[in-house]
Specification:
Layout (H helix, E strand, L loop, with lengths): L1 E6 L9 E5 L12 E7 L2 E11 L12 E8 L2 H14 L3 H8 L16 E7 L6 H7 L4 H12 L3 E2 L5 H9 L3 E7 L17 H9 L7 E6 L5 H14 L3 E5 L3 H15 L3 E4 L5 H12 L5 E4 L11 E6 L17 H12 L3 E5 L4 H9 L3 E5 L10 E6 L12 H12 L3 E5 L8 E4 L16 E3 L4 E3 L6 E3 L12 E4 L3 H11 L5 E4 L9 H10 L5 E4 L12 E6 L13 H13 L10 E6 L5 H7 L3 H15 L6 E9 L2 H18 L5 E13 L2 E10 L5 H12 L6 E6 L5
Parallel strand pairs: 9-14, 9-15, 10-12, 10-13, 11-12, 13-14, 16-26, 17-24, 17-25, 23-24, 25-26
Antiparallel strand pairs: 1-2, 1-4, 3-4, 3-5, 6-7, 6-8, 18-22, 19-20, 20-21, 27-29, 27-30, 28-29
Length: 724
């Protein structure tokens, strides 16, 4: 018996299986999808079994060394997903399987048992002289107390008793030790009391057919109760003996979402995201793998979990770009969800207050089924939105306008809360010298360093390089350093000066780097331990705080002015979603948006809370410029440490594309990438616009094959890119 094994190296030239002999000891245990250790060249490497064969091949083979984690293997669906990712993204197959697995089970991760156990004591049923033993040893109070406890309970925790008493009773055969698996994350707060759906929610609920594959687009205004509809559908799925996956875009969103699901379904829920420790991920994955839970709530990677008898997938905030992975393999979780739902003949629900234009267009064409929630629950009003023209502010370079400051003070007097958004962390975007013009730049990347005042560091947000800031210019040694740009740290400092009595908490990547920091910030703000929550885009979606009645957007122009055809869409999404955090309970909400461009059409549409008008406006722009959803986009990124070599190769690729793709394809470039150098690696890019794929995949595979053995250049094919 022989096994075809895919080894751990994510190299295109090794993207194939190798055949190994299965030793007799493994023949009854080995399965397709199992992790193994095999000899390869002169090394021992990990791999995954992709096939078992009986006929002996006509070449020399080596034996499998060991079966790693025989209690676990990739199931048939996961193996199919890996092949789907390879075909969709043109990545090595092993990269796809590595992505499917959590870090504690990676194929190239040497075997490690993350299991945690709790030791209990039980009476030995084979010991028939218990009463005699008690009479003879009644002077040993510790032993007698333990025996009496076990008479009243099936088991007791070993740690609660003296070591000597336990050892003696085990030695004499009176009791036994038993170990039980202990999960690091556990919650028993199930509360079966249901909130009744309103008529609009009930209509959406009844429109979803759980017995066939369909993609539903649920467009619901902020505060319309989309989560309640999911939970009712999931409850029905569980009643039918099936399971469900719920994806959320940000780790910080899992905290409140998971609490809602715990409250409804108790320990029947597993949570899965990157902020968990390896041990926690291992535990949650084992719960899922063993069929101990019916619901999984998590971020992008949760789409791969091996839930049995899958009945529904929900993707919340479906417009979020975090569902697309930024490194190889560059999969989109929505594509994987569609694949799984079609395979299992079950529905997929994509939900958002601001659906992506691509999703909304598919709903318009009837590819998706459109469901709507147009009113907030309990007939609450949408927040009032005002645009503040910062050009009219009297004080130059003012960060907080007089109107926003007055509204903040009023909310503080009324014991209400405020959320402030600035989608840029740090203190200053960059520092330059007014005397000589020197600007601090990263030596590894083509970008300025961002100043973080709390740590007094100038940091590169791309490669991690940092230096400590000096008070003098490193070039001319003058005291004329100028702090330019604006970040959340600077806004926080300004707020402390303007409203010194306000309790302010900041939420960005710098303040949420430690484990549990998301939950701590959200819980403390929900408990009204703080008055103002200041943050980046991570505070914009899915958070519910009953006392928030004011949302302030510090600078609405930041995302409008980026060189990206999706800039208007991203700005609308961010500001509309953030505005929706205001007035979600029984108090009227207000939103103030600071801008230097109050006549901008996108900002006017946000002011009117009108997604449908925005959709019409932006679709006209996209149609004129031939951008998605009217075309597909492919970004080809070519990188190397050698600039001259890179320049020649990217032009060779352009010529090959010109010769092999017909006139229906529009090829733009090559041009330097927007950030030309990152970590001492130079990048050029080509962009291809197309409406039909035709021979595109074959052409790309040929390019990939030609350069697979060239270790001086790297080529990435990025379909439907988030960034350019």
């Amino acid at each position: 018996m022989y096994a075809n094994i895919l080894i751990e190296y994510p190299v295109k030239t090794l993207d194939k299986t190798f055949t190994y002999i299965i030793p007799d000891d493994f023949k009854n245990t080995i399965k397709v999808g199992m992790k193994v250790t095999v000899p390869f060249a002169s090394k021992k490497v990990s791999g995954i079994v992709l096939g078992l064969i009986n006929d002996k091949p006509n070449f020399e083979m080596k034996e499998i060394i060991s079966l790693d984690m025989p209690y676990f293997h990739l199931n048939d669906e996961q193996l199919e997903i890996g092949k789907f990712i390879k075909e969709k993204t043109l990545c090595p197959l092993i990269s796809a399987y590595q992505t499917i697995l959590p870090s504690s089970l990676k194929i190239n991760d040497k075997s490690h048992d993350y299991s945690k156990y709790q030791t209990y004591l039980i009476l030995n049923k084979e010991f028939n002289h218990l009463d005699d033993y008690i009479q003879k040893n009644n002077r040993f109070e510790g032993q007698i107390s333990l025996i009496n406890d076990l008479k009243d309970n099936d088991k007791v925790l070993k740690d609660n008793y003296s070591i000597s008493s336990v050892k003696t009773l085990i030695k004499n055969g009176v009791i036994k030790e038993v170990k039980e698996r202990l999960y690091r994350i556990s919650n028993n707060s199930s509360n079966k009391s249901n909130i009744a759906m309103n008529m609009e929610q009930l209509s959406v609920f009844n429109s979803v057919n759980l017995n066939e594959y369909n993609t539903y687009l649920l467009q619901g205004v902020t505060g319309s109760g989309k989560t309640l509809v999911y939970m009712e559908l999931i409850n029905k799925v569980i009643e039918n003996g099936k399971t469900a996956i719920v994806l959320v875009p940000e780790i910080c969103l899992t905290t409140q979402t998971v609490d809602r699901f715990y409250n409804r379904f108790g320990n029947n829920v597993a949570v899965f995201h990157s902020a968990l420790s390896d041990g926690e991920k291992f535990d949650e994955y084992q719960k899922i793998y063993n069929g101990e839970v019916s619901v999984v709530v998590g971020t992008r990677s949760s789409i791969f979990v091996p839930l049995k008898n899958l009945g529904l997938i929900v993707i919340d905030e479906e417009h979020s770009e975090t569902y697309k992975q930024d490194n190889t393999p560059r999969y989109n979780a929505i594509d994987i969800a569609k694949f799984r739902c079609e395979r299992n003949n079950i529905p997929l629900i994509l939900a958002s207050a601001t659906p992506s234009l691509e999703s909304r267009a598919r709903a318009y064409k009837g590819v998706y089924k459109l469901l709507r929630l147009d009113k907030r629950v309990n007939n609450l009003l949408m927040p009032d939105i005002e645009l503040i023209d910062m050009k009219k502010e009297k004080i130059n370079n003012q960060i907080i306008s007089n109107q926003l400051l007055n509204e903040i003070k009023e909310r503080l007097i009324n014991n209400e809360q405020i959320i402030l958004l600035l989608n840029r962390r740090g203190f200053s975007t960059f520092i330059s010298c007014k005397e000589c013009g020197y600007t601090y730049k990263c030596p590894n990347c083509d970008i300025t360093l961002t100043y973080h005042k709390s740590s007094n560091k100038l940091r590169c947000h791309y490669c991690g390089y940092f230096i400590y800031k000096d008070d003098k210019c490193p070039s001319c040694h003058s005291d004329s350093l100028n702090y330019l740009g604006l970040g959340t740290e600077k806004v926080e400092e300004t707020l402390h000066n303007l409203v010194p009595d306000a309790r302010i908490i900041r939420m960005d990547q710098d303040t949420t780097s430690k484990k549990g920091s998301y939950q701590k910030i959200i819980d403390s703000f929900a408990n009204h331990e703080y008055d103002i929550l200041l943050g980046t885009q991570m505070i914009s979606k899915g958070l519910d705080f009953k006392d928030v009645t004011l949302v302030g957007i510090i600078n609405a122009d930041t995302s409008l002015n980026i060189p990206d055809f999706r800039a208007s869409e991203k700005t609308f999404d961010l500001l509309y979603q953030t505005s929706g955090r205001s007035g979600r309970f029984n108090k009227q909400g207000k939103v103030l948006i600071q801008t230097f461009n109050p006549d901008n059409n996108i900002l006017k549409l946000i002011k009117n809370n009108n997604y449908d008008k925005f959709y019409e406006y932006e679709m006209n722009v996209r149609h004129t410029l031939k951008y998605p959803p009217y075309t597909y986009l492919l970004l080809i990124k070519v990188s190397s440490q050698d600039y001259d070599y890179l320049s020649n190769k990217v032009n060779d690729i352009k010529k090959y594309l010109d010769n092999n793709l017909n006139d229906s394809f529009t090829i733009l470039g090559p041009t330097p990438s927007p950030i030309f150098k990152v970590n001492n690696i130079y990048s050029f890019q080509l962009i291809i616009k197309y409406t039909k794929e035709n021979n595109l995949k074959d052409t790309l595979k040929n390019i990939d094959e030609v350069y697979s053995s060239d270790n001086k250049v790297n080529i990435d094919f990025i379909f439907d890119p988030n960034h350019f």
